[in-house]
Amino acid sequence: MGSSGSGKFGTYRGGNGQTTGGVGTESGIGGGTGEIECPSVIENIRLEDVATSDYYVNHQSLPSHGESVEINKNIYKGRLVVTVTSTSEVLGNLPTQYNYLINCIKKGMQYTGTVVASGIIPIPFAVVTLRA
Questions:
Q1: Mapping DSSP to helix (H, G, I), strand (E, B) and coil, where does residue 56 land?
Q2: Peptide linkage before 122 cis (omega within 30 of 0)
Q3: 92, 84 in Cβ contact below 8 A?
Q4: Domain ranges of the chain
Q5: Contact by Cβ (8 Å): 102, 80
Q6: Which residue, of 9, 13, 103, 127, has the greatest Cβ tally within 10 A?
Q7: Which among 93, 40, 49, 50 has a CA at the least distance from the CA of 71?
């Protein structure tokens, strides 16, 4: 027997407003009003598709700890992406659980931050912390 669902991918939100299944923290989500609050800090986001990102392909390396990054204000190839501020090159995709941030960006919020970890073993990866 299988289970039934909506046929859509999504992130489960528990009764206390916390999101399950991700790395990092999301403060300010939930509340039962139907409107998603925009977090002021999102910590330790492990970016996706770093090995195929513009930055890694062009440099064959990754930015070091403390390098400035930001969320690109526009959707790039169907995804919200994080770019390296100094080069404007895509570093990686935000996990889809953060897609709600597009609404925050449309409200005029800007998310900038820093690389908190990066490496190439076993595969290229980058972890960032963002602040509004």
A1: helix
A2: yes
A3: no
A4: 40-131
A5: yes
A6: 127
A7: 93
The DSSP bridge pattern shows strands 90-93 and 112-119 to be unpaired
User: Tokens 């995709």 sit at which residue?
Assistant: 93
For 73, phi and psi rounded to 5 degrees?
-70, -20
* 57 and 106 Cβ atoms separated by less than 8 Å: no
Q: Return the beta strands (E) in the chain as ranges.
A: 25-26, 41-46, 68-71, 81-84, 90-93, 112-119, 125-131
pLDDT per residue over 21-40, tens digit each? 433 444 444 445 566 789 99
Is the CATH number 3.40.30.10 carried by domain 40-131? no
pTM of structure: 0.73
User: Sign of torsion, CA 91 119 23 110?
Assistant: negative
For residue 99, what pLDDT band results from cuts at 50, 70 and 90? Answer: very high
